[in-house]
Amino acid sequence: MVKRRIAEILRSGQPDESLLIQGWVRTKRELKGFSFIEVNDGSSLASLQVVMNQDLPDYEAIIKKLNTGASVEVAGVLVPSQGKGQRIELKAETVKVYGEADPETYPLQKKRHSYEFLRTIGHLRSRTNSFGAVFRVRNACATAIHQFFQERGFLWVHTPIITASDCEGAGELFNVTGFNLKDIPRTEKNAVDYAQDFFGRPTYLTVSGQLEAEVMAMAFSNVYTFGPTFRAENSNTSRHLAEFWMVEPEMAFCDLDGDMDLAEAFLKHVFKYVLETCPEDMEFFNQRIDDTVLATAENIINNEFQRLTYTEAISLLEKADVKFEYPVSWGLDLQSEHERYLAEQLFKKPVIVSDYPAKIKAFYMRLSDDEKTVRAMDILAPKIGEIIGGSQREERLDVLEKRILAQGMKPEDLWWYLDLRRYGTVPHAGFGLGFERLVQFMTGMGNIRDVIPFPRTPQSAEF
Ligand code: 4AD
Ligand code: MG
Fold first, then answer.
1. Partner residues linked to 78 by β-bridges
2. pLDDT value, residue 222
C-alpha cells in the first residue's frame, strides 16, 4: 500500500484511493458503532479525518488506545466525507497503534494552552497547530533565502562557529574552552593560562560570521552565510535570544546603496515565497495570532521601503508628539521605542535608516567624508524594530587601523582582516538579518522564543 503525507492527500486525494498514513492523533470522537480520529503528520495545519467502523478487527481495544498524542498507522480507502469541514476522509481497514499517550498525563489535551505553558514542554509543543505553522513557515523562509541568493549567483559559505575575534566589538561573547573548570591552569601572575587551553588562545562562540564572510567575498565576489550565532547579552526581551540564526550576505564591488537595494529585494522575495507556499499557515496566523499579518506581507511586497538618514530620523523623533522613555538626540543610539515609532506609527512600513554616528557603530563600518558618520544601515520593521543591520565596510587600511584602535581593540589581533585591505582591497558591503526576527515579523508571533524550536535565553536551556 502506498504511504502518503497528509498535506498531499488533502491537496489531491481522490475517493477510492487506497493508501497508508502515519501520524499522531489530535482528537478522538466516539459515536455509536463508529469513531473518528484526526491524524496529523506535521505536513500541514489540517489533519486527516479517519473513520473507523466497529467491524474493524479489535475495534474496542484499538479505540481505547487512540487517545490524543498516540502514534498510529492507518491503511484504508479515501471516501467523500459526509461531515462538514473536509472533502475527503480515510475509511480505516487496518489500524496499528505504535505508541499510546496516557490521557491522565499527556500535557497537550484538546484546549488552548498559553505560549508560556507550552515553553515548559518544549519537547511536545511542536505537535500543536501554532508551532506546526511556525516551523513550516520557518522552513519556507530558509528555503526562500537560499533560493534568493543561489538565483543571484551568491556562494553559500560556511563560517566558523568557534572564533578568536569579537566581530561586533561588544564583548557579548560566550567563552569556549577545553579546560576542566575545577582546575584551570594559571600563569605565574595567576591569570588564566590560555596557552594550555585546547586552541592555545582564548576562543569564543561567534557573534557573527561577517569577518570570515568578507574573506570569502574577496575571492568569490558575492557570498552569504546562514548559520547560528551566539550572544551573551543578558537581555530578557521578546526579541533577543542567546543563540539565533543569522543570514549574512557580503558583496565585493558594492556600496551602501547596493547593499540597501539587495536587502529590500531580499525581504520582498522571502515574503512573496512564503505567501505562495504556505497560504494555509499564513491564514492561520492572520486569524489566530495577529490580524495584520497578511496585510503586512502585501505591504512589504508591494511598497518601497522608506529610506532616511539617522540625522533625518533624529529630527523626526525630536518633533514626534509622543513621549519616549529614552532621550533622543544626535549621537545617541536609537532605542527600540524609537525604531518602532518610525516604522509603525510614522511610515507604517519598513524603514531603512542609514549613516549613523561613527561612535555608536562597529569598527568595520566605512567612515564618511564628514568623519562623524559611517555608512551603516539598519532596517526597522513595524512591531519588531531592527531586523537587519548592515554597512559598507572600511576598505582603506589606514582608516580601518585608526578605527580599530579608537575602539580599544588591537590591530594585530585582526592581522588577517587587515591583510584583505593590503592585498586587492575593494569597496564592499553586506548585512545581517536576524532570522528569528524575520520569522516573528512574518508570523506575528509576539515572542522570539516561540519561533525557534529550542530557544536559548538567560537562565534557560532545557531542551
Ligand atoms: O546588527 P547586528 O549586530 O549586525 C551584525 O552582527 C553584523 N556583523 C551583520 C553584518 O553586517 N554582516 O546583528 C544583525 C541582526 C540584527 O539586525 C537582528 O535582527 C539580529 O541580527 N540580532 C538578534 N536576533 C535575536 N537575538 C539577538 N540577541 C540578536 N542580536 C542581533
Ligand atoms: Mg545592529
1. 90
2. 98
Q: Give the model's pLDDT for residue 440.
A: 98
Query: Which of 173, 437, 451, 456 to mutate for ligand 1's pocket (most ligand atoms within 8 Å of CB)?
Result: 437
Which amino acid type is present at position 364? Y
- Give the DSSP letter string of 300-347: HHHSPPEEEEHHHHHHHHHH-SS--SS---TTSPPPHHHHHIIIIIIS
Residue nearest ligand 1's atom 6 by CA: 208
Sheet architecture: strand order including 203-205: 162-163, 203-205, 175-176
Q: Give the model's pLDDT for residue 167.
A: 83
Q: Give the whole-angstrom CA distance, residue 391 versus residue 414.
A: 19
| Amino acid occupying residue 345 | Q
0.90 exceeded by pTM: yes
For ligand 1, which residues put their CB under 6 angstroms from it?
167-168, 208, 210, 231, 233, 240-241, 244, 246, 248, 386-391, 430-432, 434, 436-437
SS3 helix, strand, coil % of the chain, rounded to 5? 35, 25, 40
Query: For the chain, what is the radius of gyration of the CA atoms?
Result: 27
Write the CA distances from 231 to 207, 209, 225, 268, 325, integer angstroms.
6, 13, 17, 28, 25
Name every residue whose Cβ is closer than 8 Å to that of residue 289 and which is 6 or more positions away in sequence: 130, 443, 444, 445, 446
Which ligand 1 atom is nearest residue 386's CA? Answer: 17
Q: What pLDDT shows up at residue 410?
A: 93
Residue bearing the CA closest to ligand 1, atom 5: 432
Pairing between strand 203-205 and 162-163? antiparallel
Q: Name residues of the chain where pLDDT drops below 70.
A: none
Please give the grid coordinates belonging to residue 299: 505591504
Res 170: pLDDT: 81
* Amino acid identity for residue 144 in this structure: A
